RORB protein (Burhinus bistriatus), 91 residues
Amino acid sequence: DRPWLTESKKVQKLQDKIYVALQHEIQKKHSAEDKLSKMVSKLPLMKTICNLHLDKLEFFRLLHPETAMNFPPLYKEVFNSELQYSDPRES
């Protein structure tokens, strides 16, 4: 569901490792066994929220391109997969 990923198999392997690590932590701390499944069940909602955020960010970028161009580098890196930050002065 992320067409911009170039190495989706590596991402899936990382996700699997994170899942196993979470499972291990929950077992180690003797937490409720259904805690991990509850966390995983929240993922679709989190993806929806992320998509809404990207939509709002794109709208903001269109309204305020110079401000969006000056976003912090980490923010640009995280969200650059969806958004292109071009310098309006180069047009």
Notes: The CA atoms of residues 44 and 50 lie 10 Å apart.
